[in-house]
Amino acid sequence: MACTRCLQREPVEPFTPLIIGLLLFSLLLELWTFTVALKEIGGWAGLRKNRNNTTVLAVLLEDAVALLGILLTLLVAGISYVWGPRPIFDAVVAIGVGVLLGVMALFLAALNRRLLIDASDQAVDQVAQSWLAAHGIRGSVRSLVLDDDRAVVFVRAQHEVRDSFAVGEALKAQLATAGKTIDAVYWKFATGV
User: Fold this and answer.
1) Does the domain made of 122-189 have the CATH classification 1.10.287.4300?
2) CB-CB contact of 157 with 185 (8 Å)
3) Contact indicator for 27, 98 with CB cutoff of 8 Å
4) pTM above the 0.70 mark?
5) Local confidence pLDDT in tens for the 193 residues of the chain
6) Rounded to an integer, what distance in angstroms lies between the CA atom of residue 139 and that of residue 90?
């Protein structure tokens, strides 16, 4: 019964100048946030280099899709205002915008998948493990990714490490040369050894 209601024709009102004005205002706001996000990521040239900056990239992508959606809605509004309502065209554009938003959501989910779950950066783990072994510290290392280039490191050492804070700071400096920012190094020492 609900499905038959969807197929019933209803009178359609054309877009009013107020609605078109609000769409233009929202277009300007989205264009401003898109410009800010694009500058933050380094412009079009920086987009490729910083494509793993998921926070800014998500804002940039969302704003790009919003801009496209607003432009399509303005197209529908303009046609409706000039030539009268076109329900089938309106519906096709609405479905297109919905599909566009769905594709964006799937893309962002795939992009952020590794950050959504307790993820470890294997490169950080290997560099830290090798560096610690070279300094006579035996144990295991596991990192926790916070963002694309930031992590924390957990070291489970088999023996007490003298001045572990200084060793942790040196490890952070070593990992910084590999392009990773380590916010903290946490130590756990085996007991009874």
Assistant:
1) yes
2) no
3) no
4) no
5) 555 665 666 676 777 888 889 999 999 999 998 898 888 777 887 777 766 666 777 778 888 888 998 999 899 888 888 887 788 888 888 899 889 889 988 887 877 765 566 577 788 888 888 888 888 888 888 888 776 677 888 988 888 888 888 888 888 888 888 777 888 888 888 765 4
6) 63
- For residues 176 and 39, what is the distance between their CA atoms, to the nearest angstrom? 25
CB 168 within 8 A of CB 185: yes
Written as one letter, the residue type at 170 is A
For residues 78, 84, 85, 89, the Cα torsion angle rounded to the nearest 10 degrees is -60
8 A C-beta contact, residue 105 and residue 131: no
The length of the chain is 193
Domain boundaries, the chain: 13-116, 122-189
Q: What is the separation of C-alpha 47 from the centre of its chain, rounded to a whole number of angstroms?
A: 13
